Structure formats: structure tokens, C-alpha cells
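[step 3/7] fold_predict: job queued, chain A
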Amino acid sequence: MEEFKHIPVMLNEVIDGLDIKENGIYVDCTIGGGGHSREILKRLKTGHLYGFDRDEKAIETCTERFKDNKNLTLIHANYKDAPEILQARGVTKIDGFLIDLGVSSYQIDTAERGFSFLHNGRLDMRMDRSQSIDAYQVVNYYSKEKLLDILYKYGEESNAKKIVENIIARRKISPIETTGELKEIIEESFPKKVIYGKGGVSKKTFQAIRIEVNGELEGLDSLLFQLISMLNSKGRGAVLTFHSLEDRIVKNAFKREATDCLCPPKTPVCICGHKKSIVLVNRKPITASEEELALNPRSSSAKLRIIEKI
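[step 4/7] structure written:
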């Protein structure tokens, strides 16, 4: 079995932030290689951890790594289904949750998974390989308008028009099969000085396609609301984000639930009846230390937000 390698981002900050109780019920919505979960489990005595992941490889890896641990239940499912799955199992209250929204190092570095422009492989990008839609279908079959929309919306790519024009022109000749071909098309859409001066001009387009393939932003706000509602008093929630779009969703969701009244500013008397249910443990997001950045450059874009249930 190929090893599922992944360095857990801001490990100490996450574990400290969750303030783990030895008898608590915890949920790791994106268990990956089990780096964060290993430390949660070390702190549990009679408590229990439910680990979710949509990537079957992650579940296989953690099943082997934690095979003797009775405090862990692994579930192969999209993390957005976690509240419903937990409640079906009779778990209605939890003491903490963690959501790591990053792509794992294993997924990025395994060429056949087709996530990265740094490793040539078939266009795929599926976190859950049982789903039908993949990057190949997005690149080769989406309309010009739809491709433009996702590159602007999910990649915030200012050069989207030229990139999409070149994708459409190339796929008319033959299907775009690999990450290397797509990278080549993207780089052809920029002046040479931009490619060599800036580097990584493919990053935004690859991000946009990956978000589309995996529906990464859909339902995230709803999931946060459901998990917060399941938290016991003093329970904690921690979320790691890696780009501005998902961080904005998390920031706004936490701000809303940490605010008493959501009425427009000029409303003389509150009519919404909203009561805050959480406090922000850190008002500004926590970022990786200099030491961590030196060891794991992929932590450079990470932001950690932590809340506590009132």
C-alpha cells in the first residue's frame, strides 16, 4: 500500500485550541493521514473520536494506523454529511470538531490523482474517486461560459478569458488528457515574462477546477451551523482554511454565530431575535510559525479559526 503522507498543519495550535477533554466526543471531519487525530486520541481516555474522509485511501490508511485504538470510529463519507451520519448513530452532542480544508500532500504528490500541475498525470482531482465528475470532464465538456464562471469565481483568475479561449481551441483538436497538457495551455495564455517572473500561473486555474470537481464550497456554511448547534457548552470548533474563498465563508459564519442581533444597523429595535451561540477564541486567524513554514512551506497559506460554544 502506498503511504498516505501528510504533515498536519499547525498541529500544536489546533490541539491547544480544541482544549480536549479526556471523556469528550470529537469529530475530525477530514482525517486524511490521521496527523491531528493521533494527537486527539492521545488525550482521550473514555472519550471517542469520529473520523470522516471522502478519500477512501485516507480511510484505508487510518484503519491500518489506528487498528488497535478503540476510541476511534472511521467513516468513509463527505464531511458535509457528518452531522446527519452522527445523529443517525445516536450522537447528537459533541465536545469539539476539526475541519482541515486543505488538499493532502498525498493527493498533491501522487501524479495519478491529477491534482497538481507539478506532477504530470491524468486530469482527475477527485477527492472521492467513486464520484463520476472529474477534472477531465470539466476541462473537456464544460461550456465556455461555465469555464469562465468557475475560473473567475473559484480561482479569482483575472486572465480567465484568454485561458478559456485556449482550452476551447485545444480541445477542438483533441481531448485535453493530462495535468501537463493543461499547464502548457495555461502558460501559453500568459506573456513569457509573467511565467518566469511570477511562477505558478497555473495555480488559480487548477484551484478553480478542483473546487468545482469536489463541490468544496457548497454547503460549508450549513455544515458549520449544524456542527456548532451540536456542540456542548464550552465545546470547541477549529477550522483550517487554505484560500480566501473558503476562509471568507468560515469567517462570516463564525462572525454571525458570535453576534446577538443581525438586524440592519438602522433598525431601532431588534426584530430578528438572533442570539449569539459562540465566542471567537481568536479574533484574527492564527497562521503558521516561522519554524513550521521552514519545515512545511505548504502551511504558508493556512489560517486557523477557533470558536467556543457558550
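[step 5/7] annotate
The mean pLDDT is 94.
The radius of gyration is 21 Å.
exit 0
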